Amino acid sequence: MKIYSPLRCAVYTETFFWHFHTVLDYGWGPEEPAGRRKAGGLAAGKFSMTEALPEVATEYGYDETALPCDETDIQAFGKIFLPLFYIAVFALGLAGNVMVVLAIVKEGSKKSITDIYLLNLAVSDLLFVISLPFWASNTVRGWTLGTIPCKVVSSLYYIGFFGGMFFITVISIDRYLAIVRATYSLKSRTMKHSFLITCGVWATALLVSVPHFVFSQMLENDCIPVLPQVLMNIWPVFCNVELNTVGFFIPVCIICYCYCGIIKTLLYCKNQKKARAIKLTLVVVIVFFLFWTPYNVLIFLETLRHYELFISCNQIKSLDYAMHLTETIAFSHCCLNPLIYAFAGEKFRKYLYRVCFKYCPCLCFCGPCNRYEVRPSTSYAESMVNSNITLNTSDQDGTVFL
């Protein structure tokens, strides 16, 4: 069984001729020992969104570099490590993002524009983490739920992943408009516009996930895309480029531009909360870079691997180990989103303290939790001034959080 994360594309061809040659060339037949199979992917025959597809050999001859690379140690490591990691991310991500959803939904005051974006970011992360237990089970014992659940889980996974990336980008743009283009934002930052933007983000995430829904099938006790032969050489490269550009490069360029403009504006702003706002801004950018850059660098290297620029067994094994580690770092980001984007704010901290005091009074170490009761909201004009200065994301209550 090949062991890799579900974000990495698996491919199987419907053409018997291709599969026959692959079995001959790479020893993937039913009688081949597991140790001779090439590692990669969540199950047999899989390779990742970042894993190279074996080329079809048309001539038969002895080539030492074409011998299968024994990666049984990587397979054993992944089979133990990945399920534990998926379950940990599921538990932490579920708890944090459910708390964000409840805090926004149960808040009595009128919802702000950024509250809507934060709510949708939390929902995206929930879709992402909810799929992880299924992939953990698939890693251990294969896919046993059938084709329809395979399509649904794969689609939810990609919708959650890209939706989360897109809403992080939208939040950055929204803050840029509220702080750097404050006058313009009075007309552009409306609930109608936020609703249209939210619908557009979800539509884009759905569009990106359509190929995975169409091609995903249960095959040989695994959930993988089954493709026609014409797409076999295009699909892995397309997946890598899609993940590198749509899932990282474009969002990171927008985020950097927006937050650089925010910091520049705050440096010229005379306010006591300026230092904290700048620190929180830097935290958002630095954490995003630290968690997602290594993984996307490895994805690019895997694209080069598809063109056989890495043929040494040691190089391949090092690349696979590095991919395991960078994937764990990247996927953990959805657990930090509630801390970075929500609970850094006063309103969400108040809600968290009230919940802790209600269900776990022993956890309230900072005095009576009822002192965090929400105060009456300030006027709209006052809150807009506060938001422009302190990176407020709630236009009604003037609280400070990123």
Task: Walk me through this protein's architecture.
The chain has one domain (73-390): Rhopdopsin 7-helix transmembrane proteins. 64% of the residues lie in helices and 2% in strands. It is built from 13 helices and 3 strands. The protein has a 3-stranded mixed sheet. The longest helix has 35 residues, at 72-106. The model is unreliable at 10-65 and 370-402 (pLDDT under 50).
Characteristics:
402 residues, mainly alpha, Rhopdopsin 7-helix transmembrane proteins, three-stranded mixed beta sheet, 13 helices, 3 strands, 64% helix, 2% strand, globular
Coarse shape: globular
Biggest sheet details: 3 strands, mixed
CATH topology: Rhopdopsin 7-helix transmembrane proteins
- Topology order in helix (H) and strand (E) letters: EHHHHHHHEEHHHHHH
CATH architecture classification:
Up-down Bundle
Portion of residues within helices: 55-70%
Could you tell me how far the N terminus lies from the C terminus, measured between alpha carbons in angstroms? 43 Å
**How much of the residues is beta strand, in percent?**
under 5%
For the biggest β-sheet, the strand order reads 1-3-2
Task: Kindly provide the name of the CATH class.
Answer: Mainly Alpha
